[in-house]
Design a protein that fits this description.
The chain has about 375 residues and is an alpha/beta fold. Helix content is about 45%, strand content about 10%.
């Protein structure tokens, strides 16, 4: 019988064709993927775009329109919600550059900036080559100051956050993911009603993430209520209202809390800065909903979400990557304790006044791109005169 083409088979054939520089084989396999509605993974696009870039630079392949093929692949990746990485976008930019299509480069960059924020130094070097292949175009390495002003072109970097309708849609998505059964639905609704009755919150704290900082539960370490308390107090000292969200297991009899731990928790309850999430539910949905919901309300643009969680868990991958990344970049605060002593004060990394991400200036076609290993180092590439 006929062998059905799977994603793994197609990716393998395309990867082999890429290694051999066989454009015809790679593209005929891609056509079969599209025709037979085979599922997509990023690795398939990555290999194809790499091959297109190599071939376009060498100008091989005769009548193949590399640029149109590449742009169609980009569109296909968007339609299949398959996020490309920075090297995939740079490969497509190299195709545009080889064909001298500058309007297409701007279109690719506009799509790229939605998911790629800062570039690795080697990718940034390749992107600089793409920019400078345009006549009269220059790339200037710049240090962007704390006020967000570019010293080369004078353009001010913007703070780019989600719009109200996007925040509402994200709340709706989290709401659907959290309410997976009758009990869970009822519990989550209770939480939302409780939130709506509270005074406005300024900082939402992922309690377990703070409490286990530099501790290893798998090695018998227990949660540090003191660490959580020091983060709460740090925000109270700034006259900001914190809210800690933690799973109920951290307060059960099995939690073996000391007297001082119990006193700390009692203070949280008295001040109404603690919400305990119910059993058999993931506390992540609660603090994430609280953060997104609060930031969607009037006066919520300055809300911060305190956690070192990188949000790589499978359940976060159900959220819209683009929306989530944009929200996180504006509201996420990382924290650090120098040591485990009970008097070690937390330090924080707050979001900057402007978004550390690729930005197109008001003058269309002028771009600023940050490097991932130093948030102050960017390249400025004004549109050519």
């Amino acid at each position: 019988g006929k062998v059905e083409l799977t994603e793994a088979m197609a990716s393998g054939i395309i990867r082999m064709a890429t290694c051999l520089g066989d454009v015809t084989k790679a593209l005929s396999t891609w056509d079969k993927v599209v025709t037979n509605k085979v599922s997509r993974k990023r690795r398939m696009y990555a290999a194809l775009l790499e091959l297109l870039a190599k071939s376009a630079r060498a100008d091989e392949g005769g009548d193949v329109d590399y640029l149109q093929v590449g742009l169609k692949m980009l569109q296909d990746s968007l339609e299949h919600s398959c996020d490309l990485l920075q090297e995939d976008f740079v490969a497509l930019l190299q195709v545009c550059s080889a064909k001298g299509q500058w309007s297409d480069i701007d279109n690719v960059l506009q799509t790229m900036q939605e998911t790629i924020y800062a570039l690795q130094p080697d990718t940034l070097a390749l992107m600089t080559q793409v920019f400078e292949s345009q006549t009269l175009r220059k790339c200037v390495p710049v240090t962007i100051s704390d006020d967000g002003q570019c010293p080369s072109c004078g353009h001010a970097m913007r703070s780019i956050d989600l719009e109200k309708n996007e925040l509402d849609a994200m709340c709706q998505q989290i709401n659907q993911l959290a309410r997976v059964g009758d009990k869970q639905t009822a519990a989550f609704d209770v939480f939302k009603q409780w939130m709506s009755r509270q005074p406005p919150v300024d900082a939402i704290i992922d309690g377990a993430n703070v409490g286990y900082y530099s501790l290893r539960p798998d090695q018998g370490h227990t949660l540090s209520y003191s660490q959580v308390d020091r983060v709460i107090q740090a925000f109270e000292k700034k006259n900001l209202r914190p809210l800690v969200i933690m799973h109920c297991r951290h307060f059960s009899n099995s939690a073996n809390m000391s007297n001082s731990d119990q006193a700390i928790v009692q203070r949280w309850k008295d001040k109404k800065v603690l919400y305990t999430t119910p059993p058999k539910m993931n506390d992540d949905w609660f603090w994430l909903y609280a953060g997104v919901w609060r930031s969607s309300l009037e006066g919520g643009s300055g809300l911060v979400m305190v956690s070192n969680d990188q949000m790589r868990d499978h359940h976060f991958q159900m959220l819209s990557t683009r929306k989530f990344l944009k929200w996180r970049e504006r509201h996420w605060v990382n924290f650090h304790f120098d040591d485990r002593s009970r008097d070690s004060a937390p330090s924080f990394v707050f979001p900057s006044k402007f978004s550390i991400r690729m930005q197109e200036a008001a003058a269309k076609g002028s771009w600023h791109v940050p490097t991932s290993d130093d948030r102050t180092k960017w390249i400025c590439s004004p549109a050519p005169p």
